[in-house]
C-alpha cells in the first residue's frame, strides 16, 4: 500500500488574525515541531490573515477571499459540509475547524461532542490553534502553571471547563470557538450546545429507537468499512464490556471485507483477568480476527511516560493503552472506540432513585462527588493541608458545571459527561489511539446523543437498554455476559501495583518536585526497601489511591518537561487559591 493511499492521523496547527512576522515565525516553529514528531503536512495555506497546516485527513476549501476547513480524529469529512455554517459542520461531522474571511477575521471552532481535541492560545489580534498542546507550549513566550487545573487532574483525572495545565492555553469544549473580529479583537465564547435541548420524552417505542440508534452508528461507521481505504482493513477495540462488542459486531456486519477486520484487546489494568478471555469469546462468536496485546511489568514506566506525552500531560487515565497503540501503528484501518457509551447509552451516570427528597445543593454536590470519589482516599496519598486544598479547588472548579445543569432533566448525565468524558476520557481515542490510525467514535455523534438523551431514564438505568442494542447489532450477542458480570471482584494483581510499577512511580515522585505533596507515610516509604515498596503497592492496588498517585506522577513528568520554562513552578502553590 502506498503512502498516498494511507490516511495519516489528524494533525492541524496554525494562526488566524492580524498577523505579525513574529506570529508567522511561531506558526512555522509549531509546524517544525510537528514534523520532528513524524507529521507530514499537506501544502500549507499561507494568506495575509492565516497560516494553516493540515494532514490529509482534514478537508479544506479555499475561495478568493476565504478559507474553510474541518477535521476530526476519524477523517473522511464530506467537503460539502464546508458550505454550511460552522455550527452545522461541528454538529453533523463532530468536527473542529475554521472559517476565515479577509484581513484575518474568522473563527476557530470545536466539535459538538467536545471529544475532538483542539487547543487555542489567544494573543493580541490573533489566535494560535493546534491539535497538540506541546506545539503551542514549546513556542510560547510565557507559560504559567495552572494549579487549579492540577487540582482537577488529581481529583477528576483531567482539567475541567477547558482549562489546561497552562493558564495561557485553552482546550475548546463542546461548541466553543475562538473568534477574531474585523476590528482585531479576540474572544473565546460558546455557541448553543444542542445536547442541552435533548430531554426525556413521553415513553417511546423502544424497539424503534433501538433500531434507529444502531442504524445511525452503522451509517457513521460504514464509510470506513467500504473497502476504499486501507484495503478494507479496520480495527475495532474490543474489551470485555458492552460498548466495544456492539461496535465490533457492527463493523463485522457493515464491512465490505470482514475478513480484514481485527479486534484488539488489552488489559485495562482494572484487575480482572477475564477481560481478555471474554473479549476472545465475543470475537469468536462474531467470527472476527482477534489480537490480545498485554503490557509487560518491566515496561510499565515506559508505557506511563509515553501515555503522558501522548495526551500532553492533560489526563491520567489510559496509560495501559500504549502497548496496543504501538501495534496499531503498523495495522492500517480505522479504529472504532466506544467512548460515551456508558454515560449516554448505559444509564450509569444518573441520580439515584432516592434523589427527589434531596435539596438542590445536595444533588449538585453528589454529582460532583460521584466523579471525584478518588478524594475519599486523599489523606493516604497527600499531606492533610494539600488534600483539603485540592478538594476545595476541585469542587469550586466543578461547581459552575453542576450549577448550570442543576435543574436539567438530564442533569447528572450532562454533568458527568463534562466532568469526565470530555476532559479525561476523550484524549484516549482522540489522541492516543488517534496517534496510530484514524479513530471513529460513533457513540458521541450528535444523532446518537439525541436519541439516547431523549429516552426516559428508566429505559437505560443500570444498563437496561443494552440487551436490546446488542441484539439489534447482532443476535449472536444476546445474553452474553461481560467480564464484570462474571467476576465482580479482582482476580490478578494490577500491573501498576507490581513491584516494577510501584518502584517506578515511587522513585519518580519521591525524587521530584511533587515529593513535598506526599503524605508522611508515602514520603517515608523508600521503594528500595521491602517494606517501602509494599506500602506503595498496597495503595496502587486500590483504584482511588492509585488515581491520586497517577496524578502526582503526571505532574512530576510535566515539571520535568516544562519546569524550567514556567513561572512559579513550585507544586506547593497548589495549596493557595
From TrEMBL:
Pfam families: Asn_synthase. GO terms for biological process: asparagine biosynthetic process. Residues 237-422 form the Asparagine synthetase domain. This is Asparagine synthetase domain-containing protein. GO terms for molecular function: asparagine synthase (glutamine-hydrolyzing) activity. InterPro entries: Asn_synthase, Rossmann-like_a/b/a_fold.
Amino acid at each position: 500500500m502506498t503512502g498516498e493511499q494511507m490516511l495519516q492521523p489528524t494533525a492541524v496547527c496554525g494562526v488566524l488574525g492580524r498577523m505579525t512576522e513574529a506570529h508567522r515565525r511561531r506558526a512555522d516553529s509549531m509546524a517544525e515541531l510537528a514534523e520532528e514528531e513524524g507529521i507530514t503536512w499537506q501544502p500549507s495555506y499561507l494568506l495575509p490573515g492565516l497560516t494553516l497546516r493540515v494532514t490529509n485527513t482534514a478537508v479544506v476549501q479555499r475561495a478568493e477571499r476565504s478559507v474553510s476547513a474541518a477535521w476530526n480524529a476519524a477523517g473522511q469529512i464530506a467537503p460539502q459540509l464546508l458550505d454550511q455554517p460552522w455550527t452545522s459542520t461541528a454538529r453533523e461531522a463532530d468536527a473542529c475547524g475554521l472559517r476565515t474571511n479577509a484581513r484575518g477575521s474568522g473563527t476557530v471552532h470545536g466539535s459538538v461532542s467536545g471529544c475532538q481535541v483542539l487547543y487555542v492560545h489567544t494573543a493580541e489580534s490573533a489566535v494560535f490553534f493546534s491539535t497538540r498542546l506541546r506545539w503551542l507550549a514549546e513556542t510560547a513566550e510565557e507559560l504559567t502553571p495552572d494549579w487549579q487545573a492540577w487540582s482537577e487532574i488529581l481529583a477528576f483525572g483531567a482539567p475541567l471547563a477547558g482549562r489546561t495545565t497552562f493558564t495561557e492555553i485553552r482546550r475548546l469544549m463542546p461548541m466553543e470557538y475562538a473568534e477574531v473580529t474585523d476590528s482585531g479583537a479576540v474572544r473565546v465564547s460558546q455557541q448553543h450546545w444542542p445536547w442541552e435541548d435533548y430531554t426525556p420524552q413521553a415513553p417511546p417505542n423502544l424497539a424503534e429507537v433501538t433500531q434507529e440508534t444502531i442504524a445511525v452508528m452503522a451509517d457513521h461507521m460504514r464509510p470506513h468499512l467500504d473497502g476504499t481505504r486501507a484495503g478494507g482493513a479496520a480495527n475495532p477495540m474490543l474489551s470485555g464490556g458492552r460498548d466495544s462488542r456492539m461496535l465490533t459486531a457492527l463493523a463485522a456486519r457493515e464491512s465490505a471485507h470482514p475478513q480484514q477486520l481485527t479486534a484488539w484487546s488489552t488489559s485495562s489494568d482494572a484487575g480482572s483477568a477475564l477481560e481478555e478471555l471474554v473479549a476472545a469469546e465475543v470475537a469468536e462468536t462474531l467470527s472476527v480476527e482477534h489480537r490480545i496485546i498485554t503490557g509487560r511489568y518491566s515496561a510499565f514506566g515506559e508505557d506511563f511516560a509515553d501515555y503522558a506525552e501522548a495526551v500532553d500531560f492533560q489526563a491520567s487515565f489510559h496509560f495501559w493503552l500504549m502497548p496496543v497503540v504501538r501495534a496499531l501503528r503498523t495495522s492500517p484501518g480505522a479504529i472504532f472506540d466506544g467512548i460515551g457509551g456508558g454515560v449516554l447509552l448505559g444509564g450509569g451516570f444518573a441520580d439515584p432513585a432516592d434523589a427527589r427528597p434531596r435539596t438542590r445543593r445536595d444533588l449538585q454536590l453528589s454529582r460532583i462527588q460521584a466523579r471525584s470519589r478518588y478524594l475519599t482516599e486523599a489523606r493516604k496519598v497527600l499531606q492533610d493541608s494539600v488534600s483539603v486544598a485540592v478538594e476545595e479547588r476541585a469542587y469550586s472548579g466543578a461547581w459552575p458545571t453542576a450549577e448550570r445543569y442543576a435543574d436539567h432533566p438530564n442533569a447528572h448525565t450532562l454533568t458527568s459527561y463534562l466532568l469526565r468524558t470530555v476532559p479525561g476520557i476523550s484524549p484516549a481515542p482522540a489522541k492516543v489511539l488517534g496517534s496510530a490510525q484514524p479513530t471513529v467514535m460513533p457513540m458521541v455523534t450528535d444523532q446518537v446523543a439525541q436519541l439516547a438523551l431523549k429516552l426516559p431514564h428508566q429505559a437505560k438505568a443500570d444498563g437496561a437498554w443494552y440487551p436490546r442494542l446488542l441484539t439489534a447489532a447482532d443476535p449472536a450477542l444476546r445474553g452474553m455476559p461481560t467480564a464484570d458480570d462474571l467476576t465482580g471482584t479482582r482476580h490478578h494483581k494490577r500491573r501498576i501495583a507490581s513491584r516494577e510499577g510501584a518502584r517506578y512511580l515511587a522513585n519518580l515522585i519521591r525524587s521530584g518536585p511533587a515529593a513535598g505533596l506526599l503524605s508522611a507515610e508515602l514520603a517515608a516509604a523508600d521503594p528500595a526497601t521491602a517494606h517501602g515498596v509494599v506500602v506503595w503497592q498496597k495503595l496502587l492496588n486500590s483504584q482511588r489511591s492509585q488515581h491520586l498517585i497517577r496524578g502526582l506522577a503526571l505532574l512530576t513528568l510535566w515539571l520535568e518537561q516544562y519546569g524550567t520554562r514556567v513561572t512559579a513552578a513550585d507544586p506547593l502553590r497548589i495549596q493557595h487559591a
